[in-house]
Amino acid sequence: MSASVHDVVLTARGLGKTYAQPVLGEVSLELRAGEVLALTGENGAGKSTLSKLFSGLETPTAGHMLYRGQAYAPVSRSEAERLGVRMVMQELNLLPTLTVAENLFLDNLPSRFGWISQKRLRQMAVDAMAQVGLEAIDPDTPVGELGIGHQQMVEIARNLIGDCHVLIFDEPTAMLTAREVELLFTQIERLRARGVAIVYISHRLEELQRVAQRIVVLRDGRLVCDEPIQRYSSAELVNLMVGRELGEHIDLGRRSIGGPLLRVDKLSRGEKVREVSFEVRAGEIFGISGLIGAGRTELLRLIYGADRADSGSIALGQPPLPVTIDSPKSAVSAGIALITEDRKGEGLLLSQSISANIALGNLGAVSRAGVLDRGAERELAERQIQAMRIRSAGADQVVGELSGGNQQKVVIGRWLERDCQVLLFDEPTRGIDVGAKFDIYGLLAELARQGKALVVVSSDLRELMLICDRIAVLSAGRLIDTFERDHWTQDQLLAAAFAGYQKRDALLHPAAPRMDA
Amino acid sequence: MKTTPLENQSAAPARRSGTYLGLGTYLGLAGALLAMIVLFSMLSSHFWSYSTFSTLANQIPDLMVLAVGMTFVLIIGGIDLSVGSVLALAASTVSVAILGWGWSIVPAALLGMAVAALAGSVTGVVTVAWRIPSFIVSLGVLEMARGLAYQFTDSRTAYIGDAYAWFSNPIAFGISPAFIIALLVIVIAHLVLTRTIFGRYLIGIGTNEEAVRLAGIDPRPYKVLVFALMGLLAGLAALFQVSRLEAADPNAGSGLELQVIAAVVIGGTSLMGGRGSVISTFFGVLIISVLAAGLAQIGASEPTKRIITGAVIVIAVVLDTYRSRRAARRN
I need a surface site. Which of A137, A238, A274, B166 has the fewest CB within 10 A? Predict the structure, then answer.
């Protein structure tokens, strides 16, 4: 490595990216050799977009970059990699059936007349793995047999082959165990000492504080902080990420909360969901918070019958009576709706029209003896387009062409046509712009006002604190605690989210842990 | 006040739902068909004649009904390779019922169709229950059905006589009852696909089965039904063939599945599921059949016929893919 520590390796000036809407604007920053930069911010703040601009996966629509003193405008990932800017993606790009060595050198296998030179390949692989301190792994092991942590090391080793001056990690610890995280941090420290400029994207504050020297916070596509990380306490960092002061309110109108409408009793499935019990009342918005992987989505899927529960029961109605839910079909006929997190993969027929999508769950209502009444179907779609303010070219427009917010409204609109008492929302505002978010909050409040019971899962704590009457916190599959409006603080909610991953005694006293400043 | 309805101008709705492939597709298919007819008429003085037409009308009902069933199967993202064997199985069943048990023709015909529908249901149930690709399940059923057909007929062609011949004999203008039935099947299937809840579910399942399931609809019975329907239509095709040949041949329909799939795909139905049209499939059947008849007329040898037919299939699919990609880019 020629660069000495703290030389600027990569400079961004006024970088911006606009798709349909601006997602990143006027970002200027410097990456320095031998420094770990923590890049953080809420979901949708623009972290991924920024790292994609660095690594050539996207091209900026404004601003420019300098890399080692030269203009830098990569048009592809391979161009960026050739120059030495590399990225370890959240999803590993490894072929599980090939060996470690084959994966490492897939694009450049040593060969003679097309026959792979096994000996040379082996030696090259051993050298590459030594760079990440994993000489112990046999390069002939199929990658699929390694744990996720070691797979990630293979991915990192692959990125270190050839020149590497900038290495970007996108949420690298999402799937790792504590020991694997340690392994990763050791390697990051080694790379840093070698003079690599590292960008570390994560929400996990304690990790950022451990591994990074400088912190950059993005909020709504803008850079709001670029400072040495030790200047901030955990609480200050949370505030920086979340931005707006707590206690912010939106007026969602008044509503009255009635008796219990949904009762979940000791619902369990494997390690993911463990004996979760709660009650939701008519007219209530019940939030479920927790870290990624805490079992939130899995819990909703169990209630909806999309997955089978190992044990536990569900009761529904006023008063709640036991119901058997073994499939989405039985959930829907019992009056439960699920708006999934992955609306493209699980919610919508992307290549079909708005009207076909809205009518999908309600074809009985727009048909006679199995024959569709297209006029009625259209009417239904147009009614929802109006009511939900779906911006479109008309009921015949293909859903895949709509923006995220409007797609979400189509999914919700489908359920509004059916009279569901209980609506389960999984990340209802993910990937949606701010304006549409507030439309959806208003809609949730309106549904609650009609006496429905709403369960809302969200990774955005601020969102839950804004709209919910109560918030339950899941951690490692368990429901740690339930907080009432006006009786919660962000610190308490965060502490509960971590509680399940700490020692057993912390579990028994969920109120005890504090966020140390 | 004079205001231009700006909203209407911007709202050029791209109607591309799964059952409608666009006027362009229909015009393209009709144009290709017309071009082939003109070409063969120029190459052979006998092509443009009543006898060509009546031969075609006599032969295509089998392919028409099979292709309709296959259109449904492809729309849900499946494939059924067993149709040729199931056809032979149904024909053999009919022969056993008539020759072996002395049944009369109507119950024998019904039994044949029931057996075919059962074979289709087996493919459907196994595919759905164990979530196995229908490709491999139907490959197994292909072998089993063919084996049963040999067993029923002792591996010999069973002569049934002209009991069913009226089915294939022209009643007017070279058109037989079989052809009329096949046309009816096409019209009904088109209406089912475009106008009924069942049809809409099939498109939905082919587009995104998980989304359909999470919308509170159990996709499994519909999928089984599609394979059962495919079997039933193979049974109907078997009756057409028995009436034409006046015999049940246990070797009948071997390799037919490829011809059927080719016709459906030429029509523009997607092998990935979610997109297809029965009307387009009808055009695909006509194109394949006119091509075969025309090549025979101009005296092409069997190898030449196969080479040209194969090339046409590939070109048709390449053109369709090119067209739909371009349409996708425009949006």
Answer: B166
